[in-house]
Amino acid sequence: MFNKSFFALASALFAVPAFAADVLKIDASASSVGWKGTKKMGSAHNGNISIKEGSVTFDPKGLLTAGNFVVDMGSISNEDLKGTPDYQKKLVGHLASPDFFDVAKHPNASFKITGVKPNPKNKNEVTVSGDFTMIGKTNSITFPAKISAEKGVASGEATIKIDRTKWGLKYGSGNFFKELTADKIISDEFELTLKLVAKK
Known about the structure:
By secondary structure, the protein is mostly beta strands. The chain is built from two helices and nine strands. Strand 6 and strand 7 (137-150) form a beta hairpin. The two termini are 43 Å apart.
């Protein structure tokens, strides 16, 4: 009788994990994605894009193991041209057009984590790898990030360099349109600045 009870209890204990992973929902209102694009001659534009939804998963030790988020490309905005609203509207419209993000056909962009490499010297620093989908194409990207998680709330920050031509976004690229004069060339790389907050 004792043996049967003991083995039944042992089986139950080992069948159920001692700790469960924490899945936190991204707080879209507290999170942001900033963008910055430059021209070869040095001028730049910047703005924001809204996050629609997403989640992140942490293991019992508080280490990031998985995550994803969706960005609303229709929300793309500009900040540096506030003083010239007509030009600002024209720029935002151009960014939403087929020349760039083709928002009518591709209203969302998304990112899904495929790997996380912790920094052994700093638990809040990691290298994140994942699949970034934009204008209907997916490529892998890798970038450093700072992440913290405590009492059911997680936050993360990262700056990501994106070579837009890998997604087929070639408008204004001097590498594809050799006839462009220097003042018309748009840098192939643009920058995304992520600030994410997730809660239970």
